[in-house]
Amino acid sequence: MEKVIIFDTTLRDGEQSAGGALTAEEKLEIAKQLDRLGVDVIEAGFPLSSKGELEAVRRIATEVRRPTICALAHAQTEAVDAAWESIKDARHPRIHVFLSSSDIHIFHQLKKSRDQILEASRDMVARAKGYLEDVEFSPMDATRTDPEYIYRILEAVIEAGATTVNIPDTVGYTIPQEFCNLIDGIFKNVPNIHHAVVSVHCHNDLGLAVANSLAVLDHGARQIECTINGIGERAGNASLEEIVMAIKTRNDLLKYTTDIDTTQIYKTSRLVSDLTGMSVQPNKAIVGANAFRHESGIHQDGIIKERTTYEIMDPESIGLAGTTLSLGKLSGRHAFRKRLEELGYALSDEDLSRAFSAFKELADKKREITDRDLEALVAEELRTVHETYHLEHVQVSCGDPSIPTASVRLTGPERQLLSDAAQGTGPVDAVYKAINRLVGVPNQLIEFSVKSVTEGIDAIGEVTVRIESEGKRYAGRGAHTDIIVASARAYMNALNRLLAARR
Ligand code: KIV
Ligand code: ZN
Predict the structure, then answer these.
(1) What is the three-class DSSP state of 366?
(2) CB neighbours (10 Å) of residue 361?
(3) What's 470's DSSP letter?
(4) Where does 232-272 show beta strands of DSSP type E?
(5) CA–centroid distance for 229 within its chain
(6) Ligand 1: which residue has its CA nearest to atom 3?
(7) Is the pLDDT of residue 329 over 80?
(8) What is the value of pTM for the model shown?
């Protein structure tokens, strides 16, 4: 069976859509998890966009050694040079050059001629090739480009040294049959096409990104560009987990392999949604909260008798163990560490101590602790963001009728204790106002969502927020059985990220 190269662009196309929400540490943490997941290529960022982005890509290139680390550049000298600068220390570096090819883009946006575009594409691929062997080229908006012109561009860039040519459906416009015809045309009309790997990069504006990506495999495409949870510009990119699980589950028809360790999928999905603040919709295929949940009586009856009646995939195959932790209030540290290790978390002694005391606190409040609770707890305790301000205490008074009032106490940057109180339209508003009085960083709350990690009245509540300050967005997440505490923690998390990024 032929292998499909999995090119993950969560940290580039995905992060672009999250408004640059990730810090360098967070990008690195995701890159390390993508490595464990087994992706072949990590597109780590667009280094020309900022110095911070260049540094973040450089750190990934230095610390993540197995996969190819790719940096994106538009077809301009400075962009290609910045891309090289960021990945030159990678064990397997790649530069991905792109330039729009459709008339709509080149005449209206770039205001250039077709010949100028072809020349710039060829020249910038040649420039990248001067730095390294592995060069990818994408004619942006390929699916709305005159195919004859794509053939000419591809022939020129392969001649200049491109080893992968990627066909992006930038605006998610194509449908499977049309996309297959385009790929067939490329194989038929580009004389040197066999010197390059043909890749695809599909957006999901019509909900067809995964279908389009899978359809072209039988037509010769051997690399798929995708993202965790399908995040990406607008409606997102093809979702990695859907592509990989479709190939695995329907291997009778999709006779290909990938190097993905599917048992890492769930964990990677959680990490990406925690750090980007982009929640996964409950009915999302593979990783949504309802993906393996059976509601109707008839379905439940079938599942009890024989799982395969209504389940085409084993939840364990994506790393969703779903078992209930048989630890309680009286359980020891050793058993706790062992369960975390089984879930794939290797904690230092210091982290373990923090997580263990959080576990004990939770065990006092919650009768049954599931693996999902444990994951929420670990995510809460072990986030890598440096805490400039730490939440020590929060208390609210609210009701009907009443004026919601909150008091908070924080530890500040010099370890000093700070406290204040505020009133708001509701308890969360009051808490956020009190925190703002102490931290004093102007920002706007643009998203707030709360969901429960598991069923039941004693469930952990997970709050995700996004704040905006000086045109940049920062996500924050907090979990607690008390949703006001979870809300305060999520806000503190976002503020600490903002402060870390500014530093
Ligand atoms: O969607 C797109 O066209 C892109 C390119 C940079 C490949 O993301
Ligand atoms: Zn894209």
Answers:
(1) coil
(2) 13
(3) T
(4) 256-257
(5) 6
(6) 170
(7) no
(8) 0.87
The reported pLDDT for the residue numbered 101 is 98
Q: Please give the share of the chain, as a percent, with pLDDT higher than 90.
A: 72
Please check whether residue 247 is in contact with residue 253, taking contact to mean a CB–CB distance below 8 angstroms: no
Nearest CA to ligand 1 atom 1: 170
Atom of ligand 1 nearest to the CA of 203: 1
* Ligand 1 centroid distance, CA of 168 (Å): 6
Distance 14 CA to ligand 2 centre (A): 9
Neighbours of ion ligand 2 (CB under 5 A): 13
The reply to whether ligand 1 has any atom less than 6 angstroms from the CB of 140 is yes
Q: Is the pLDDT of residue 468 over 70?
A: yes
- For β-strands 417-423 and 444-452, DSSP reports them as unpaired
53 lines ligand 1 (CB under 6 A): no
227 in contact with ligand 1, CB cutoff 6 A: no
Both tokens of 229, joined, read 């949870």
Q: 230-244: buried (b, 16+ CB within 10 Å) or exposed (e) per residue?
A: bbbbeebbbbbbbbb
- Phi–psi pair at 23, nearest 5 degrees: -85, 170
Name the E strands within 379-460.
390-397, 405-411, 417-423, 444-452
Summarised one tens digit per residue, pLDDT across range 169-223 is 999 999 999 999 999 999 999 999 999 999 999 999 999 999 999 999 999 999 9
